[in-house]
Amino acid sequence: xxxxxxxxxxxxxxxxxxxxxxxxxxxxxxxxxxxxxxxxxxxxxxxxxxxxxxxxxxxxxxxxxxxxxxxxxxxxxxxxxxxxxxxxxxxxxxxxxxxxxxxxxxxxxxxxxxxxxxxxxxxxxxxxxxxxxxxxxxxxxxxxxxxxxxxxxxxxxxxxxxxxxxxxxxxxxxxxxxxxxxxxxxxxxxxxxxxxxxxxxxxxxxxxxxxxxxxxxxxxxxxxxxxxxxxxxxxxxxxxxxxxxxxxxxxxxxxxxxxxxxxxxxxxxxxxxxxxxxxxxxxxxxxxxxxxxxxxxxxxxxxxxxxxxxxxxxxxxxxxxxxxxxxxxxxxxxxxxxxxxxxxxxxxxxxxxxxxxxxxxxxxxxxxxxxxxxxxxxxxxxxx
Amino acid sequence: xxxxxxxxxxxxxxxxxxxxxxxxxxxxxxxxxxxxxxxxxxxxxxxxxxxxxxxxxxxxxxxxxxxxxxxxxxxxxxxxxxxxxxxxxxxxxxxxxxxxxxxxxxxxxxxxxxxxxxxxxxxxxxxxxxxxxxxxxxxxxxxxxxxxxxxxxxxxxxxxxxxxxxxxxxxxxxxxxxxxxxxxxxxxxxxxxxxxxxxxxxxxxxxxxxxxxxxxxxxxxxxxxxxxxxxxxxxxxxxxxxxxxxxxxxxxxxxxxxxxxxxxxxxxxxxxxxxxxxxxxxxxxxxxxxxxxxxxxxxxxxxxxxxxxx
Amino acid sequence: xxxxxxxxxxxxxxxxxxxxxxxxxxxxxxxxxxxxxxxxxxxxxxxxxxxxxxxxxxxxxxxxxxxxxxxxxxxxxxxxxxxxxxxxxxxxxxxxxxxxxxxxxxxxxxxxxxxxxxxxxxxxxxxxxxxxxxxxxxxxxxxxxxxxxxxxxxxxxxxxxxxxxxxxxxxxxxxxxxxxxxxxxxxxxxxxxxxxxxxxxxxxxxxxxxxxxxxxxxxxxxxxxxxxxxxxxxxxxxxxxxxxxxxxxxxxxxxxxxxxxxxxxxxxxxxxxxxxxxxxxxxxxxxxxxxxxxxxxxxxxxxxxxxxx
Amino acid sequence: xxxxxxxxxxxxxxxxxxxxxxxxxxxxxxxxxxxxxxxxxxxxxxxxxxxxxxxxxxxxxxxxxxxxxxxxxxxxxxxxxxxxxxxxxxxxxxxxxxxxxxxxxxxxxxxxxxxxxxxxxxxxxxxxxxxxxxxxxxxxxxxxxxxxxxxxxxxxxxxxxxxxxxxxxxxxxxxxxxxxxxxxxxxxxxxxxxxxxxxxxxxxxxxxxxxxxxxxxxxxxxxxxxxxxxxxxxxxxxxxxxxxxxxxxxxxxxxxxxxxxxxxxxxxxxxxxxxxxxxxxxxxxxxxxxxxxxxxxxxxxxxxxxxxxxxxxxxxxxxxxxxxxxxxxxxxxxxxxxxxxxxxxxxxxxxxxxxxxxxxxxxxxxxxxxxxxxxxxxxxxxxxxxxxxxxxxxxxxxxxxxxxxxxxxxxxxxxxxxxxxxxxxxxxxxxxxxxxxxxxxxxxxxxxxxxxxxxxxxxxxxxxxxxxxxxxxxxxxxxxxxxxxxxxxxxxxxxxxxxxxxxxxxxxxxxxxxx
Lengths: 384, 310, 309, 515
Ligand SMILES: Nc1ncnc2c1ncn2[C@@H]1O[C@H](COP(=O)(O)OP(=O)(O)OP(=O)(O)O)[C@@H](O)[C@H]1O
Ligand SMILES: Nc1ncnc2c1ncn2[C@@H]1O[C@H](COP(=O)(O)OP(=O)(O)OP(=O)(O)O)[C@@H](O)[C@H]1O
Ligand SMILES: [Mg+2]
Ligand SMILES: [Mg+2]
What we know:
- The complex is a heterotetramer.
- Chain A is 74% helix and 0% strand.
- By secondary structure, chain A is an all-alpha fold.
- The radius of gyration of chain A is 23 Å and the shape is globular.
- Chains in contact: A-B, A-C, A-D, B-C, B-D.
- Bound molecules: adenosine-5'-triphosphate (2 copies) and magnesium ion (2 copies).
- Residues 58-59, 101, 179 of chain D line the site of one magnesium ion.
- One adenosine-5'-triphosphate is lined by residues 54-55, 59, 101, 415-419, 445-446 of chain D.
């Protein structure tokens, strides 16, 4: 390092101690900046609430108690966080491998379709076999739905942003087709939903008397697995290398094209598991297509991207990030109920939070780099 | 069950295809310019919704369609400035802030509609302006020259945008800034200034695209644009970052939608088959892309913020 | 307050508290608006306090809202969406002292605190289909549908049957556009029908505002359903089939007043007045055609006419 | 100091009044003082050379002059007046031009369009006609031949450089900064460039010239300023100095500029290329019927002007480019499934010429880059999982053995200087124990201290019995290190000479097609 003391020793000493105490603030910055951004966004939301003629204080109080006040609420928040976490973790894998996966929605649907079909085909298998089977089926469904745009990108040069958006549309219509035809429940009123699926496939509730179910453990395990995959396995080295610099990866003897397919397949598999969890962990225990804009996916395919970026594309940091967004979504429903604002308000607020948080990330990065440079001074001084 | 291969059915289909293509075209032309300068805006859908609501509300209250377009333009400018602050000043990840804009637009327009309008009250729809002479040509006249002025305007923008990008100094700056912003900077071209302009134009066109939907429908509903903004972005890639390519993509998408629709109307497809048919535009887009190699064309600095000190 | 089940609403001085959870907006001129209009009509004759959570197309979110209202001891919690069945079943079990109403369905899960309600939308559809067939000079009618399921399918099938009963051989083309919300596509569907010679249009779900716009500018007659759609085009709306859920709600509320929280399944029909064909006074409908409609309604009421559903 | 109103004395007698003076320039980056009270003055009609190791602060000083960075302290005087340069536009307006170390050209635009950038108001028609005409004038005047309508991506490196110079001359730059312009040029191209530069000084323009090549400095410079660790460590002229002296000023110790290569024992053939045909990017044959053989313990040099098939040859050998016909054998076995992976498995290593693009991953840590090839081998990984302890051990060892200057092995590689990134690549490839290796442009853009080190390592590999194919446009490097030299012209071998059998001149002749 090209560092020399142009200052006198006292100055250096001063700077040194100031630097080391500043450096201690570094982890704090990583958390504080996005949290401040959320606070700023909520302030904008408060203005909107005032404009609607409701009390922001009351609204936000309902939001907080509705998402964090008590074991039941926390459990509901965790339930909301699950699909975000699963999709987000998958997004970490894809983005780190340099692939922009906008196809979470479609991959959730594909996972849900395949896992539902599995449960419909072999409903009588014991839980210990059926539950892993439907989860794996979900992963396979989502994985295939990710691998297709992956293959198109790797071997045919089709831009993945484009193809994953198209794959979302295709999946949504395919689901609608199945729920009018092959998978629709018998009944007088034709509702776009399947039969109540086999009880053997219900994700069991976790002890504690809340509605929190096995899906939560699965989401956490997937996050840990993705962390190990990315940072502790040779495959992870390859995927990240390809993401950062495909040229150098090719020169190093790595199969670049295959890596792209694998990354999107893994990413899709995580979303596919989310699809299975959304079906078998739901209170309806069936696959429902509401024909609405987001349907049963709860828009997790999109929100998961935001969550992953919020977590700095780190699978483990995506876990708390999902919680934050889960709390916001869940609290939003409570707020809607408490102060009687339309649900549109929550969607708009969600958008504002996304904009503020993403806008703050660069600031966080800069501040962190600034802290790192302080530490850099320190290390080089120590070496000298 | 009707017969599709009659002249009148084909005329209906093609004319409808052109109408359906118009919002795609406007939005994708704007996004093409934006991306050529290196800025991705995934928020097109949100801005479309805002433009749609603004135009609808203006006609509802003031009864003027020209004024509605001005309002849509103003909304586009405001959203453009906002997006510029987020992406140029704060240097936020462009794709994600776009999703934020989408969510905001989706929620806010619904909120505003419920609060200020309440129930979908019809407004005057855009009237077709048949072009004298040309509109009388059999078949072709009916397909091409009996549309509302915004349709003509959108298609007229294709050569204008092409000229702007490839023949003006501004276009030169845009291309340079989207490809190698550092090089443009060293020659005194303002990277963020250029991007600011393209962002505003892109947002204005997205907002107008939404206005077209609202004024053609003559009404408003929650999520009026129904995902058209996302398709428009896809069409930019489809068109390999060229205005003409965006037009081909928009027309293709519009025609396939119209075709599926026409077949539905004639009873050629019915029941659950119509959900399979609804996939057609998306499937076709992917299939076409497999055959068109559009590797070339993506601006090298797309989504990369510019910062001189880096 | 549902402390002891006997007096949960009636005798107390305060208003009767109703909570509504519904998938789309309360002003959609369609399904969701119909329940709000009906509750408001109930409110004309007694003191009612309404809370609502709308736009909850995600079932899990609706569940969350339902549970919240149950916890807050509402006198009646209405789950207005057939997809909300599973959460209603589960939450109703948890809160046996809260009354729930669920529609559109017939199943009460055998729970004493759940009322189910649904509507024979095919009946009104049948009567309007007959009128439409009589009105159509071109003998060509276009129907814009969302997705071929549920209430929408019931209405469309009834409409078609009515039209064909009135004039066999008439062309009734149905286009399900695969979306509840794509207004522009509904508009193009209507445009295609008109271009192909249809002189009468109908349709169901919230995206029909796209189709009514076309009907208005093309001067083509429109038949509405779910809510009174005269506001969408004073010149072209002939009649609307309107859901009067208050017929059911009054029953349910009367029961609650007496301590009976539910357990029954209710049906809106022409016969019990829950379904009504409301004519648009501004539309100059030929008396003979109106008579056809009224005859059909009478026949459906006394059972001499069947819709085929 | 007065503004000179009288015309500058021309042509060759340099004015005494400096056109540029930079005084006490200090620039700090977080954790680094890149420039420390640097003084620099340039007289019109002269070449002022800046010398210094990688990271000494040369580019930073020039970026300050061009308005890309703002100095923390210090003043700039131009033609006698104190000026503030807030942006490149200011610099251009003052008549300062800069050829950047990394080309600042838009590849998808034509030469004329690149030149025209920023010249005209945004809302005008981009009329290339006048630009093209003036451009032709300027290029004729300085012998910088270039098609104004060619796209930059179509141009060879030397031509791109000409485009860069034309950009500055078109704007009539009076002071021209050239940051390592020769790093990527072939000897004939360097000669052409120097001719142009002399013409520029003859016109009374001032030049600041940065290079790591001492013989160029001796040839071209009127004055030399040497930077070390951000500070001026010496100021001299070629007449008063020597290459050895300059090297010492730069590095702070004496550097041996000649190498004793010694003899090594030659073994069996490790890399054989037989009648090889390869196509270039434009679909024409880039390598035509080339045959060669590299034996264990031998360095075979490929000399030639760039663009004569060197890159295609290297890429074909390494499985990065399809072979049209002919064969390639490694360790006596013909390579069948020809991918970089299989080639590496067969025992070939590769040091690509573009280290940042092809050799290393900037966002990876030094350790990750060092393991980019061997990460899957035990003991660094078992059953697909990494052993981070072992990896760290190994990388720390490599960093020490190859003298890579980095704070830790966990430092992102992009924070290293170019020379040190090159060392990382070399450490990785040389430590892979491959029996044969292709080494392309190993010291391009690297300072003399690092170059010395890299050459030593290369010879050590040779001594250990490796077969090395050395591709370089630096004839000195080729002549010094190679046991045999093959001259490549238009994809064909013009001839093969043994060490010591030919002079630079003779090889230069071969390179230009004279047998
Ligand atoms: N943008 C920057 N941010 C932080 N530090 C920088 C930046 N640019 C340069 N530096 C630091 O300044 C020092 C001088 O860098 P500079 O680019 O001026 O070196 P140089 O003499 O041009 O080297 P080379 O011969 O490699 O081109 C480097 O050691 C580097 O650490
Ligand atoms: N953004 C940055 N942050 C920190 N250091 C930087 C940055 N950009 C450049 N540098 C430093 O500037 C110095 C020179 O950078 P430059 O880009 O000139 O290197 P190069 O040309 O690739 O390598 P070489 O040293 O071979 O000339 C390096 O030491 C590098 O570490
Ligand atoms: Mg430099
Ligand atoms: Mg350098």
